[in-house]
Write a structure and sequence with these properties.
eight-stranded mixed β-sheet, NUDIX_hydrolase_dom (chains A, B), Nucleoside Triphosphate Pyrophosphohydrolase, 11 strands, three-stranded antiparallel β-sheet, homodimer, alpha+beta, 189 residues, NUDIX_hydrolase-like_dom_sf (chains A, B), NUDIX hydrolase (chains A, B), Ubiquitin Ligase Nedd4, Chain: W
């Protein structure tokens, strides 16, 4: 940010009165331009096939991480709820008809100023279709997941939480919300 | 937004190529200025006194809703995690030493482009003290809560979830995550 979006004068970084952090402040109209984390919201859609639970992944057709696999997710838009964002991104990226379940993971990624939310979901049918931001969409059982080709640590971690919980659920347990923080040094295993 | 923060030329609202929504786009450098929801993160701090569970509320010293009561909460900052934001806001607004527990409510407020998160917390001591954004900080049992003077519907709702769950917890149940969406027509009861 170099210029004020309200009046076009140059901005400077300074700590405003009664604040504790540097903000971009307009040198003419004194508007303070706050910058805050963005939310990335998506789903973990599953399909049960011949006794096996498969998850739907999308191969990214855009940067960053072009060609890597991800869960359907994207930036939450103004004027929508978290659940609406999750459903919209799943349709846009995977063309998937889902039943949306509960919030499953809340993942802070402070070094990129993001919070990622994933909801559990069940596919209603297998008429999914790669959207413009996906090269390919496919179902993977746990042993089929291309762990080395997962786009983001938050996606790997959510998949790991899921398959771990799934074992407990099969012996009578429940899925539970997972919170996890990711720092810059964190790399997918 | 009237001007481009990168080059100071005027922006116009238009749907960029391969997008479906209107964005502010620079008429000169063509930078797309995305606008996304903000996260408000806080806590529901409790203190058990003579068999009664009390919650810590702050009387707002700032607009909007000056003079109304709220849970300690505020805008999440870049470079921090959700849990760090919750803890920081509780210290800034209420000067309260807390033990932070699990995420308790996730509340979308699409008409103001916000998502509110509240964590359960327990006060470590009662040395709380109103910060610069609070007129007063005090403990309230359920029957003492000034329901008509609560600042925001997300706060009223989180308090209601809590006292309802508390009855279940006392008979062997557990606290659970609550998700709820608020629309413009929603008013506190």
């Amino acid at each position: 940010m170099k210029f004020c979006s309200a009046c076009a004068a140059p901005v400077i970084l300074k700590v405003p009165a009664e604040d504790t952090r540097e903000r971009f402040v307009c040198t003419r109209c004194e508007t303070i331009h706050y910058q805050n984390p963005n939310m990335v919201v998506g789903t973990l859609p599953i399909w049960n096939l011949q006794g096996e639970t498969k998850v739907l992944l999308c191969k990214r057709a855009i940067e960053p991480r072009y060609g890597y696999w991800t869960l359907p997710a994207g930036f939450m838009e103004n004027q929508e709820t978290c659940r609406q964002a999750a459903q919209r991104e799943t349709i846009e990226e995977a063309g998937a008809n889902i039943q949306l379940h509960e919030l499953y993971s809340v993942l802070s990624v402070p070094h990129v100023d993001q919070v990622h939310l994933f909801y559990r979901a069940t596919l209603i049918d297998t008429n999914y279709l790669a959207g413009t931001e996906s090269l390919e969409v496919a179902l993977f059982a746990e042993h089929e997941i291309p762990w080395e080709e997962i786009a983001f640590p938050t996606v790997s971690q959510t998949l790991k939480f899921f398959f771990e919980d799934l074992k407990n659920v099969r012996s009578g347990g429940h899925f539970q919300l997972h919170e996890h923080d990711f720092y810059k040094s964190h790399r997918p295993d």
